[in-house]
């Protein structure tokens, strides 16, 4: 009996099979049609290649090391989920030869229960016939896509056409099953933050329900999304990051207040993400800001649009709460008179690496404190008084750029780490007057005299000056302080 290799105990009303564990040479064992509730005791039969335990009362397999098992039949049992298989080291690590798994006619209801089977490298035959999960829409294509090594599913061969259809339907699609697998559970009600960067996601169909009402922060950077249709029901969302996607506009179809498609006769669009405060859309395919419909996000404070194809600054009407705007690395040539008119609370503006030739129409930003203009085509600087200035343009290459800056920014306190002295302010004023005389421009003389009063007043009463905390010219950056020395640093 010790050398027993094959045994069958069918139809014997067996409940306890622990004594079979001592026959370590068994290769094939049939215990079908009994009253067995547990087969964990067979785990030490390392020579076992075929096990038929169908038509019993087994609800799960919790432990084992079915090291040589190739065929496992658990048909007609009480198994509700295949998820416990994920905890069985035998199936995931040792059971490397298993190619046929039959769990038909059990109590399996959810598609995600098949995910643990992805770790079985040799599994090519899977039978889930007569389980409730087979009635789930697109179950077959879902299983074929996620278990891509399968050759036969529920007794039917998998064709090339089946594989192509499965790939077309589920490639890059974030489903509720896949999301649950990634985060390790299916309790979404208390999730406040979700980070799914670099997942090649192109479509999302699992965030529309009320289960995600607590979600506040989403990061889908470096994916393949083309719109945010899937996020529109997330009314509590405050932070949305979609850098490096394929977005041209936020919604595929604009919606009016009653939820119907928009047309010219119905311009009243419904609110979109009403509590959103931060939106990051860098490095997408956006050509027009107006296509984003940002006026439907009344609480938006931070907007990043760097690295797109924007040629004109529009679509920022009603954005009165915006405090930070990033437009670096676009194709902007000029700022129109109405571009920034509504941005009354804007404090920080990044517009580096564009095609700007003038700073006209920047003067409608009353609260602007930080301005970044690196790598534009600016030849002349307009009068804009800001707390931080970042300039790396042709103007910085001129010999008189210090004088020019003092003229344009009469309250500036330091340039390139060197303090602006009263003598330097006077020289700047004198130079400006000389230029006015050359042009014979009497109006400019009046402006110059007024400006001189400001300059000299600043020198006499430094308490009234605006503190310049950072100035960058020609790539040299210095931290400045009104009441202390200068030091090198980053803004």
Write the layout of secondary structure elements.
Layout: E1 6-8, E2 28-30, E3 50-52, E4 71-73, H1 89-94, E5 100-102, E6 125-127, H2 139-146, E7 152-153, E8 156-157, H3 160-170, E9 173-174, H4 176-183, E10 193-195, E11 203-204, E12 217-219, E13 239-241, E14 278-280, E15 302-304, E16 324-326, E17 348-350, E18 370-372, E19 388-391, H5 401-408, E20 414-415, E21 418-419, H6 422-439, H7 442-460, E22 470-473, E23 476-479, E24 487-488
Parallel strand pairs: 1-2, 2-3, 3-4, 4-5, 5-6, 6-7, 9-11, 10-12, 12-13, 13-14, 14-15, 15-16, 16-17, 17-18, 18-19, 19-22
Antiparallel strand pairs: 7-8, 20-21, 22-23, 23-24
Helix pairs in contact: 2-3, 5-6, 6-7
Keywords: Leucine-rich repeat, Repeat
Please characterize this protein's 3D structure.
The protein is an alpha/beta fold and 491 residues long. Among the domains are: 6-170, Ribonuclease Inhibitor (Leucine-rich repeat, LRR (right-handed beta-alpha superhelix)); 193-309, Leucine-rich repeat, LRR (right-handed beta-alpha superhelix) (Alpha-Beta Horseshoe), CATH 3.80.10.10. It is built from seven helices and 24 strands. The strands form four sheets. Strands 10-12-13-14-15-16-17-18-19-22-23-24 form a twelve-stranded mixed beta sheet, with no helix packed on it. Helix 5 (401-408) crosses helix 6 (422-439).
């Amino acid at each position: 009996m010790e050398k027993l290799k094959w045994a069958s105990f069918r139809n014997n009303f067996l409940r306890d099979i622990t004594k079979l564990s001592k026959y370590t040479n068994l290769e094939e064992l049939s215990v079908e049609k009994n009253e067995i509730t547990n087969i964990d005791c067979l785990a030490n039969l390392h020579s076992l290649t075929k096990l038929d335990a169908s038509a019993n009362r087994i609800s799960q397999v919790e432990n084992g090391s079915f090291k040589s098992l190739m065929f496992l039949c658990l048909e007609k049992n009480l198994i509700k989920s295949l998820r416990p298989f994920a905890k069985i080291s035998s199936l995931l690590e040792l059971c490397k030869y298993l190619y046929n798994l039959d769990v038909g006619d059990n109590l399996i209801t959810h598609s995600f229960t098949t995910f643990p089977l992805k770790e079985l490298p040799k599994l090519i035959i899977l039978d889930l016939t007569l389980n409730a999960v087979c009635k789930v829409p697109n179950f077959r294509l879902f299983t074929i896509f996620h278990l891509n090594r399968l050759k036969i599913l529920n007794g039917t061969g998998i064709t090339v056409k089946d594989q192509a259809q499965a790939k077309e339907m589920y490639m890059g699609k974030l489903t509720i099953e896949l999301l649950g697998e990634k985060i390790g559970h299916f309790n979404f009600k208390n999730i406040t933050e979700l980070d799914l960067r670099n997942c090649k996601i192109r479509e999302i169909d699992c965030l529309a329900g009320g289960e995600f009402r607590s979600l506040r922060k989403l990061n889908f950077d470096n994916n393949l999304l083309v719109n945010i249709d899937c996020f529109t029901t997330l009314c509590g969302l405050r932070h949305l990051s979609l850098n490096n996607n394929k977005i041209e506009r936020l919604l595929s179809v604009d919606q009016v207040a009653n939820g119907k498609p928009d047309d010219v006769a119905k311009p009243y669009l419904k609110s979109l993400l009403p509590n959103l405060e931060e939106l990051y859309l860098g490095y997408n395919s956006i050509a027009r800001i107006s296509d984003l419909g940002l006026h439907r996000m009344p609480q938006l404070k931070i907007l990043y649009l760097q690295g797109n194809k924007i040629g004109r600054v529009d679509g920022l009407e009603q954005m009165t709460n915006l405090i930070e705007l990033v437009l670096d690395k676009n194709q902007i040539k000029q700022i129109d008179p109405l571009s920034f008119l509504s941005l009354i609370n804007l404090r920080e503006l990044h517009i580096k690496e564009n095609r700007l030739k003038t700073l006209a129409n920047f003067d409608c930003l009353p609260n602007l404190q930080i301005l970044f203009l690196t790598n534009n085509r600016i030849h002349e600087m307009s009068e804009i008084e800001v707390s931080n200035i970042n300039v790396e343009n042709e103007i910085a290459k001129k010999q008189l750029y210090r004088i020019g800056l003092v003229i344009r920014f009469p309250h500036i306190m330091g340039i390139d780490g060197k303090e602006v002295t009263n003598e330097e302010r006077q020289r700047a004023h004198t130079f400006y007057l000389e230029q006015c005389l050359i042009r014979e421009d009497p109006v400019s003389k009046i402006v110059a005299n007024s400006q001189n009063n400001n300059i000299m007043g600043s020198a006499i009463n430094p308490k009234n000056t605006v503190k310049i905390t950072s100035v960058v010219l020609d790539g040299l950056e210095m931290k400045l302080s009104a009441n202390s020395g200068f030091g090198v640093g980053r803004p």
